[in-house]
Amino acid sequence: MLEILKAVLYGIVEGITEWLPVSSTGHMILFEEFFPFHQSDEFMEMFRVVIQLGAILAVVVLFWPRLWPFCADKKQNCIKRDIWTLWFKILLATLPALVLGLLLDDWLDAHFYNFITVAAMLIVYGVLFIVVENARKGTKPRISTLADLSWRDAFLIGLWQVLAMIPGTSRSGATIVGGLLLGASRAVAAEFTFFLAIPVMAGASLLKLVKFGFAFTGQELTVLAVGMIVAFVVSMLAIRFLMAYVKRHDFKVFGWYRIALGAVLLLYYFTLYQPA
Fold this sequence. Notes:
This protein is mostly helical.
C-alpha cells in the first residue's frame, strides 16, 4: 500500500513538473531521495520515463481538435491540411532527439543523472529564462500562431530539445527557450512544446519498455498504472494553468524558481547527502 501511495505522489510531481519549465528530473531526484521506492533499479529506470505516457494523454485530450487531421463529419472525405503540416513540422523537430536518444540514452543516464549535473542545469536555464525575457521586453513576437512557425523554426526548436537529454535541463524549458529566442510568442512556444512531447515521450517510453521487457509483477504493474493515471489527471490541470498564465505573465518566475531549486539541491548534496 505504501508503494501505491508513493506512485500517487510521483504522479503528482510528474504531472506538474513535466509541463512547467522547472525540470521534472530535478524534482524526481529530491522525491526519490526522501521517498525511495522499494523496486528494482531496472524498474525505476523504466518507470521514470513510462509514467510520462499519462502526461502525454492529457495533451492529446486537451488539444484533440487541433491535433486530429481529419474532418469530424464521416460523410465528408476531407483532411485538414494545416494540421497535417503541423504534424510534419513536429516530426521534423523530433528527428534530432530521436537519433541522439537512440545513440546516447544509456550513456547519458549513467553519466549525468546526478545532483551536480541537475542542479547546474536548473540554474543555467533559470538564468537563461530571465535573460531571454528581459531581452524580449517590449518587442513584438515574430511568430504569433503555430501557422507562422516555419520548417526552419521547427527544426531549430528540435535542436534545442536535444539539450534536454541532459538531466535537469527540462524538455519543456529547453524548447520554450528555443522558441522564445526564435521570436515565438509565449503561447506558441508552450503549445509547440506540448505537441512536440507526444512523439518524443511516446518514443522514449517505448524504448524503455522494450529494454525492460513486459514481464511485470503484479505490484510493478499496479505502481506503473497508478502513477500514469495520476500524472494524466494532474497534467490536465497543469497544462490549463500554464496556458492561462502565459497569456498575462512572462516566464521569469520559473527562472527564479529553477535557480532556487538548483541552489537547494547543491546545498543538500554538499551538506546532508549520504550516498547509498
